[in-house]
């Protein structure tokens, strides 16, 4: 679906007392409407249970020596929604992604996808089960063409075995179907004219598009995007936003890490906030933007609290004392 047909943050109305965003229903896409309805009754607190979670994690902890990078007590991701995972640098967001997708192993904890445990499951098998991810730094294979990169994303390829590879009738029809699927996705992401170019010749934004398109070759139920807009030319940002929204319209669940709060407000149905490895807040985007715990995590506690008269006088006195010391040196 074209990006201009999707709901924007301007279409989302005031926040209800229960914390769920309401909107002019005529302006919402069907998938966004379903997501907002499903989340309307969810309490905006850390670890809030969802009506139909596709991903559930409990007690996930990762330590590096004496540093605890991730300590997530409980988290649920609602099926069919776009959920943003935000937090200051060093909050543990990417590490948490790595743990959930099998690229790293936690010290403790359990997590499940579609009710099946993923603890100890390697990354390639996680992807086969329908949960795929992209990376902050793209992983396109530079010395292979765009089409070859796409075909690598297809699963269950019959021609990968040594014996089957020498009998083309066993895999030729599948190869044709995979190529047609890749052609469709490249056209959708406006990369079809690049199909025969080496991936290393593409811009950073085009590589982001390629990585997202390649992830869809798996036919996933859930897509996890680690800072999809990082390093992207502003001209491609709106295109990427439209593609992320389109994932939800196609029935997929999206969990993404992002620092751009305007983008988070625009496309997310629900926001989870991490700080120092823990989940400190959850809720609709408009509630999160006004949450004091979130503001403190990003900017420091009491950053905008008005000073009392006594505090103001104490600061003035301290400044004057510092000036006098400088005068005497």
H-E order: EEHEEEHEEHEHHHHEHEHEEHHH
Q: What separation lies between the terminal Cα atoms?
A: 69 Å
| Structural class based on helices, strands and sheet pairing | alpha/beta
* Main sheet overview: 6 strands, mixed
* Average residue pLDDT: 83
Q: What is the radius of gyration computed over CA atoms, rounded to a whole number of angstroms? A: 23 Å
Number of helical segments with 4 or more residues: 12
Helical percent range? 25-40%
Number of strands: 12
Number of individual domains? 2
Q: Considering the protein shown, what is the CATH homologous superfamily of the largest domain? A: P-loop containing nucleotide triphosphate hydrolases
CATH architecture of the largest domain: 3-Layer(aba) Sandwich
Strand content: 15-25%
Instruction: State the low-pLDDT regions, or none.
Output: 1-27
Lateral strand order in the biggest sheet: 8-9-10-5-11-12
Task: Describe it.
- There is one protein chain.
- The protein has 329 residues and is of the alpha/beta class.
- The protein folds into 2 domains: 3-140 and 219-290, Rossmann fold (3-Layer(aba) Sandwich); 141-201, no CATH class.
- The chain is 36% helix and 21% strand.
- The chain is built from 12 helices and 12 strands.
- The strands form 3 sheets. It has a 6-stranded mixed β-sheet, sandwiched between helices.
- β6 (108-113) and β7 (116-117) form a beta hairpin.
- α4 runs parallel beside α7 (204-216).
- The longest helix is centred in the C-terminal third of the chain and has 19 residues, at 309-327.
- Residues 1-27 have low confidence and may be disordered.
